[in-house]
Design goal:
mainly alpha; Tetracycline Repressor, domain 2; two-stranded antiparallel ribbon; 9 helices; elongated; Putative HTH-type transcriptional regulator; DNA-bd_HTH_TetR-type_CS; Tet_transcr_reg_TetR-rel_C_sf; transcription cis-regulatory region binding
């Protein structure tokens, strides 16, 4: 299938006085000269469709976006979209996979080395940086969709990040004489807190990013700092 935009353009030749120039050639006046757009390569067209799909999915969601609209914005026919992705579901899957990898790489890359408090700061900034820079991508990730993805869901992404935080907390717990087997529970709680705050900040954008990160770390770090080895409930309910 020829991958080329569906429209073309024409130009007209005029004289310095602004009137059509015939130069004595019968029928030459007002004769359009056709110009042809540069044809996109398959890779370029694929990236264009991904960019358009990403914007529409973030704005309208999966159900609210159609192949017709994607094709129209790209200036191609519907079969071109099917040729590259097999349909809307295939395009959506690639968009989600890319965003999940981008966010996961950013957060896990921030958890490489440093003091535990510094790691918390870096992880909080990594998430907030992603939300600020790739707002459309984050909207897609946190939006529910009926389409099953090969890479899982936003919940599975959070779980992957929590697994890495778990390793860090495990070492910290051992150093403090706490039960390291509880590290997974605390890791899920910490990452869940940051993720939900990120979803809230997605639309609020107040306070500023650095202040949000500082408050997240304040709650997380001082909560860990005052951690009891054997916490007890103070109410009547015990089970």
């Amino acid at each position: 299938m020829e991958d080329v935009a569906t429209d073309s353009s024409t130009t007209r030749t005029t004289s310095t006085t602004g009137s059509p120039r015939s130069a004595g050639v019968p029928g030459s006046a007002d004769k359009p000269r056709r110009t042809r757009r540069t044809r996109m390569t398959g890779a370029e067209r694929r990236e264009q469709l991904l960019d358009i799909g990403r914007t529409l999915f973030a704005e309208k969601g999966f159900e609210g976006t159609s192949v017709e609209e994607i094709a129209a914005k790209a200036g191609v026919s519907k079969p071109v979209v099917y040729e590259h992705f097999g349909g809307k579901e295939g395009l959506y899957a690639v968009v989600v996979d890319r965003e999940m990898r981008s966010l996961l790489d950013g957060v896990t890359g921030a958890l490489t080395a440093g003091h535990p408090r510094e790691l918390l700061e870096q992880a909080a900034f990594a998430l907030l940086d992603y939300i600020e820079t790739y707002t459309d991508g984050f909207r897609i990730l946190v939006r529910d969709s009926p389409v099953a993805q090969s890479t899982g869901t936003f919940a599975s992404l959070i779980s992957d990040i929590a697994t890495q935080v778990e390793d860090i907390l495990g070492l910290e717990f051992k150093a403090r004489g706490f039960d390291a087997k509880l590290a997974p529970l605390y890791a899920q709680a910490l990452v869940g807190m940051v993720a939900l705050t990120g979803q809230w900040w997605l639309d609020e954008r107040k306070p500023e990013k650095a202040e949000v990160a500082a408050h997240l770390v304040n709650l997380a770090w001082h909560g860990l700092d005052g951690l009891e080895a054997k916490p007890r409930l103070i109410g009547h309910r015990k089970r």
